[in-house]
Amino acid sequence: MAEKNDNNKNLLEFEKPLIELFKKIDELKKVTDIDMTEEIKMLNKRIETLRREIFSKITPIQIVKVARHIQRPTTLDYISLMFTDFIELHGDRNFSDDPALVGGIAKLNGRSVMVIGHQKGHTTKELLARNFGMANPEGYRKALRLMLLADRFNKPIISLVDTPGAYAGITAEERGQAEAIAKNLREMAALNVPFITVITGEGGSGGALGIGMGNKVLMLEFSVYSVISPEGCASILFRDATRAPEAAANSKLTANDLLEFGVIDEIIKEPVGGAHNDHDLAAKNIRAAITKQLDELLRLSPRELIANRYQKYRKMGIFTEG
Amino acid sequence: MAKLSIHEWFVRKKKEDNRNTQQPQRLDIPDNLWVKCHQCNQAIYVKDLDANLKVCSKCDYHFRLSARERIRFTADEGTFEEINLNLKSTDFLEFSDSKPYSQRIEDAMIKSSLNEAVVTGKGKINNLPVTMGIMDFSFMGGSMGSVVGEKIARQIELSIESKIPAIIFTCSGGARMQEGIMSLMQMAKTSATLQRLREQGVPFVVVLTDPTTGGTTASFAMLGDVHIAEPGALIGFAGARVIEQNLRQKLPPGFQRSEFLLTHGMVDMVCHRKELRNTLSKLLSFFAG
Ligand SMILES: [Zn+2]
User: Fold this and answer.
1) Does the distance separating the beta carbons of B175 and A182 come in below 8 Å?
2) What is the spatial distance between Cα A210 and Cα A203, in angstroms, rounded to a whole number?
3) What pTM did the predictor assign?
């Protein structure tokens, strides 16, 4: 889908070698008296080849940049592309409705599912309205309400994770951010229904895990999942935020790393150059992966689902004993 | 495994111990040693401080306790039996900041005389059996890595098997960054075991002590049937500095202290250390009776 790649404004720093090629295409497109279709096609091929080359050598901190790309599909983008009959459900029935964490009922291949996820945005205005995807306690409590609703009516749950972290603020502390997340962790362990988590962008620590204890945890190729952001890690441990690239490499936050540690179960391929270059294809890949995993989980009884999830998280940890 | 070294450390450490400035020392300290209260600057004789459960007699400042002190002040004498003391952290990420993680572990073992940031076991309080988990800040800030998570999970499992109430004394800066994502997963692990404990109808009491923050707060520390906070303890999710940077404003006085959490409904009570043992005993008696 080379057509969708002509968005050179969104190039990341490490993709800069592509800029000249995009400029050439723009110039050729301005030519009206000669047919330049073939030339443009060639250039697009070169862009794709070069992009593949760049992405084959992508570093952890570069993956972080892709994961945070402003054009990367958001939860609501994925919901509209992957599901049908979505109806958003609002509020935690306690304090308010958190726009940073959305959810609702939907159909996946005709099957009823509950879907929840962090919501970011594609513009500064959208990001501000969504608090950059950083949920407050009421967001986690809404998520729990929806998960328990699904549980009562025996509907599978899909959670899409994309957050820098749970919101750090005075009111979030007052309303019990820690309690909200902790309770979700405990309750997710008890869900009787198939539960699939997909890390679609940033898996920011407890804020990600707070809706992320699926039976299966899938991760997009260029998403990240970590206990602290590379910048936070660098400023605390190295006392120097500019050492984030080193921290990113050190903390092993890529999909490949996490698959190796057994923290995730599957890596979902992204379109060349990242999901932002082709929302449809990214959604299609996620949908295929979820469908396959869900078919397997649907064979398990509620008791097996709980036991399966329990075992998955119980065995997390690397240590010696002797 | 050449794990005798833990005991060697205990012996070796006792000799060179007394220079530890953060932790006023315990029984083997000369009578004439004194420490300054962190709050009112009053000079206090160490043995008087110890006799007063390490609370300043002038201003009620609660000094941070080591796990061993906490056990001594809480469990019936001679009843505490430690479990799972041979678990050891490994540097599986080969993580290095100013020091390799493997070196930090070794240093922490020497500094704290512990093998990890939590001591777990079973014991009795006023003759009522409990399992206990006691976090210790002197081991890498009480941070939760794989071993802390595993020891707590096993403590909870012991409570489930034996139907004995669980008490955890939290004291932790949060997840241990040197273990990356695996430290985050300890939140899931400990919370999942607490789900089972709850299902089995076994009580869980959390005593929140200074400080309890980050991933520790956002998992087992906030999942008690009853939450008791020590006076003045820092308890929260996000670090105050992070919040200040986010909001570009000063934090209100008393923010994230025990009394703040009481006001906002996150803890059941703020309990003076002198009353703590008695309160725990009453709670255990309630659940038993
Ligand atoms: Zn004092």
Assistant:
1) no
2) 10
3) 0.93
